[in-house]
Structures are given as C-alpha cells and as structure tokens.
Amino acid sequence: MDFQLTEEQRIALDAFARFAEAEIRPITDRHRERPIPHDVAIDLLRALVPYGVVGGWLPESAGGVGLDMVTSGLLYEELARVSPDLAGTAFINEGVSLTLHALASPEQQARLLPRLLAGEIVGCSAITEPDVGSNVRDVKTTATRDGDEYVIRGEKTWISNGGISDFVVVVARSGPGEISLFLVEREAHGYTSRDLPKLGLNGWSTAELSFDEVRVPAANLLGRPGAGLRETLRLFERARCFVAVISIGIARAALDAAIVYARDRRQWGKPIGGHQLIQEMIADMATDLDAARLLTVRGLALVQAGVRCEAETSMAKWYATEAAVRIASSAIQVHGAYGLSRELPVEQHFRDARMMTIPDGTTQIQKLIIARKLLGIDAFGPREG
C-alpha cells in the first residue's frame, strides 16, 4: 500500500489549505458559538466548490467532480482543521446529493442537484428522533398515503444542518415494517426547525425538526416503498469515515497549537518543549493522530472500492473520535492554566472533539458492530442490511 500523496493531491491540498486559512477562517471564527446563518453558509459553500468540496463525490456525468474518497477525505481534514463546523455542513450536503443522485426522480434531480452541487441550497437527512437513535428500525415518524400525497407526522432531533436546511430527506414509517425515504422542502411543504445549543460545534446547525401534518406529493417518495432502511444503513459507512475525518482535523488543530505553545512558552530557563514529560505528551498525541488517520484512510479506500466494510469504518470512527478527545485534552494540559481560557483555542478544540464521539453511532455502538463482525453474534437487534 502506497502512503505517499500523489503530486496532484499535494498541489490540491496545499492550495486548499492556503485558501481555508485566508478566506474561511476569518469568517467561521466569528460563528464558533452560534450557528452559521443560512446566507453566510451559502456564501461559504459556494467558495468551497472550486476545490472539490460540496460536489466532490458525484461523478462528472452528474455535475460533480468525481473525486475518490481518500482525496475527498484529505480535503475535508484540511477544512476541519480550520472550521469543523463548515466541514460538517458541507459533508451533510454532499451526503444528501448522493441520496438524490441515487433515488430522486429526473425532475427532482434536475431541479435540486445543480443548486446543491453549486452550494446554493442546504440539505439534510432526518433519522434520529427523541426516542430513537442508532436503531433506525424503531423510527416513529409516519408517512401515510392519502390519494396522491403522503402525510408526514413526527419529530426529528439532533439533525445536522436542520436549522438552515432548505430541504430534508426524512426517514419515516410508511407501513407495517416498512421504512421509506421522503423528500420534504421547507418552503413548499412547511416543516419547522429549532436549533439546539450544544457543548461544541455550535457553528454547525443542529436542530429539532417538526412535521405537523406535512403533505408531500407521492412522487416525493425516494426509491421503492420500504427501501429506506437499507439505503440509510448504507450511508452509515461513508458517514462514519467522514465523522472520523472531521475529528482528525480537530485533533490536528489541537496538536499544532500544543507544538507552537511548547516551543514558545519558557519555564525554568528553557522552552517547556524541552522538558521530557511535555515531549512525551507531544509524541503520544502525534502517534494517536497518525493511527487515527491510517484507520480512516483504509475505511475511505474500502468505501471507494464498494465493498461492505462496516467493521473497518466503525474502527475508524471509534478510534479517531476518541483519539481526538485525548489529543485535545493533552493540548489543554500542555498549555496549563492558559488551556482553560477562552482566549486560546484549545478549550474549543476539546469541546468540538468531545461532540464527535456521539453522532452516527456512539463509541459503544461502534464496538458492538466490530465485535458482531468478528464473532458472528448480535448484541443488539437483527443484523444490519
């Protein structure tokens, strides 16, 4: 396996890193503690498009860039190092574009996909509910057929991009034992949202969505009735890798801050980086980061190959998110009392990292998936997919 970047990848990453520092950071830093507003998010998403973010995953024949998953992951790592909030927003948009490309009607694709890939609208997927997390089979939101329409009733929560979304792909129960996907547009169909304040990643909108007798045309059923469960579970492998990627970006920012501080801060007549225990922490952080990246790159490569890789992507998500927490915590320790201050960024990195251990399946859920694959024994429910 070749771990070296190609010349094309290196050039693309260097250009994108410079752009993100100069053009993205000054804007997103102003929105670290409140959701990036819709109009600002649109401006930022449009700015990302030329670099292969937002429309990178779709093939060129569908209006995308056709990037491989590893290159896309490396770009997202650079963006997450500067703004994990914007990286998350763009990642959700890309995931929705894949769903529309695979399942939407030609008319829906023609109307929504070009605008989505150009960063002109914001989409989201609504799975989680107040009483339903990782077990998608238990969703309570219903979609009832009424003539040429479906009537959607229910509540979704912890929905990434929810508060600034123009449309949503809703996972709903469409019949006994039947889970389906529905396209619901805010302006046309009238769902409502409420942003949820969080520990970290507060620039990335996370919201409750309410569907109160929301009527959508029957044509807004995406794919076959009852196919929603399989489609949703297929998305998890890619999503787990990109949650890992965003965590790696956060961890890189924390490690970079710790290295700069350890070189500059002096104590007992020399930089604190010259003390053995500080060097041990820096070495541990760097090794943890590399291990997380290698697991994640493997997961991305397997997703790209189109093979089933639930255990490998769960390893990447579990390890990278928990490693980011450890790295950010150590960065605070290197900074001492200053690490607790909001005048420096490391406490923000810690809060952001801690957020990532929960979405797309907690660390504990990932461990159950890995063990199930190895043992062939389910610790929860029927087997996925």
How would you sum up this structure, described in words?
With 385 residues, the chain is an alpha+beta fold. The protein is 52% helix and 16% strand. The protein contains eleven helices and ten strands. The strands form three sheets. It has a four-stranded mixed sheet. A four-stranded antiparallel sheet has the order 2-3-7-6, with helices on one face. Helix 1 packs parallel to helix 3 (69-82). The longest helix is centred in the middle third of the chain and has 37 residues, at 228-264. The chain is globular and about 80 Å long. The protein starts with 6 loop residues before the first helix and ends in a 10-residue tail after the last helix.
